[in-house]
Amino acid sequence: MHAMGSPADTSKSSKPDRYNAYLLRRLSSAKVFATSSRLLFRVTLFAGLLLIFLFLLHYPPLLLHSPPSSSSHRSSHRSLLSSLSSYAGAAWERDIRRSAAPRRPEGLSVLVTGAAGFVGFHCSLALKQRGDGVLGLDNFNAYYDPTLKRDRAALLAARGVVVLDADINDAALLARLFAAVPFSHVLHLAAQAGVRYAAQNPQSYIASNVAGLVSVFEAAAKRADPPPAVVWASSSSVYGLNTDAPFSELHRTDRPASLYAATKKAGEAIAHTYNHIYGLSITGLRFFTVYGPWGRPDMAYFSFTGRILAGKPITLFRMPDGAAVLRDFTYIDDVVRGCLGALDTAEKSTGAAGGGKKKAPAQLRVYNLGNTSPVPVAKMVSLLEDLLGRKAKRNMVTLPQNGDVPFTHANVSLAERDFGYRPTTDLATGLGKFVKWYVKYYGVQSAATARTGGRTASASA
């Protein structure tokens, strides 16, 4: 029996109350968490949309009529952008059709990939000048300063050539182009160039020289009606460790000395496949050390010019036995004539639209485009010294085992026989034209300008 005044035992009745209070606290916490989650989701969604908006604002539409001359840090792959941007519509089709329409009877309609590159730029100018239709495509990647590519594209735009800022691996874009324009030819010059860069970025060679080539062949074989003839850039590098000279198209090419050479050799095998299965008319051109105005800054003659003018040393290679390294330097105007000759003599493809069964065997060719006169690289430097009026600081080293070969020497008898290819520019003359362009483009002073009274090469040289 409890004593009077002692408190009642409430332990049993208080447990449900405490549990209810606990549930209320949990429910309140859940509501707060749910509210916070919804708020976080909305903030994340808003931030994502804002980033997409800023991304699109930073990258303007890719159809360039007057490309800027300033350098821009753009991605080399445009498939995402071309999906987000409008590569379609009546105005877009009108512009590209106008650019690709020939102005002369029986003129060609040519899609030029790599149109803002060195050879692509000169070929596009030459095609347009003679009345052919040209539509260019280039991804303006940063392998070398994109400013030079933008300036080339600006000159093409001034001549009425539209250059699309896009990637050859963008299958959807290529399909739209072939649906909009009945191209008679494709001049496929887009590629990852250079031998030594493969040590830094090997995947870029596979993406451009193998996957990109397949992308172009796929579009030409399956998206065009009728399929166009294709002329594409192989390379003298496919001769690799071949020691028979001069290099002939009949010589073996199964011993590449660099990854670049291996991708070009793979390209020739891929070309055979698309020719055999789909009846694509395909011509491969093996270029030999092309040089000249508007050239590539990674090439020796170009970089040596800048270093000599700046008083910086240059590195010259020699063989372990002391023998000179020789190159078959080929002037750009000669190469352009070879490219146009290949286009003019390319037969029509025999495949059916959509990749159907071919009607008959199709043309499959490969040609050397060289100068036929190998010159020691040291002699090239001596010519530059005379043109620039300055002595080079030479650093002689043994040729490393990085893919470079000791010499190149072209036999061009097949190209001469089939489309009259005859190189006419010797190295001294060609370098003189290059130096005149260089000092004007970069605004530098040299003995060349002093001797010529300030006259320089024209912008379209």
Describe the protein in words.
The protein is an alpha/beta fold and 461 residues long. It is built from 14 helices and 14 strands. It is 45% helix and 13% strand. The strands form four sheets. An eight-stranded mixed sheet has the order 1-4-3-2-5-6-7-12, with helices on both faces. The longest helix is centred in the N-terminal third of the chain and has 48 residues. The protein is globular and about 55 Å long.
Give the key terms.
single chain; 461 residues; alpha/beta; 8-stranded mixed beta sheet; two-stranded parallel sheet; disordered N terminus; disordered C terminus
Helices and strands in order, then pairings?
Blueprint: H1 11-58, E1 63-64, H2 79-84, H3 90-100, E2 109-113, H4 118-129, E3 133-138, H5 146-158, E4 162-165, H6 171-180, E5 185-188, H7 202-222, E6 229-235, H8 259-278, E7 282-287, E8 290-291, H9 300-310, E9 313-318, E10 326-327, E11 330-331, H10 332-345, E12 364-369, E13 375-376, H11 377-388, E14 393-398, H12 413-419, H13 427-442, H14 447-451
Parallel strand pairs: 2-3, 2-5, 3-4, 5-6, 6-7, 7-12, 8-11, 9-14
Antiparallel strand pairs: 1-4, 10-13
Helix pairs in contact: 4-5, 4-10, 6-7, 7-8, 9-11, 11-13
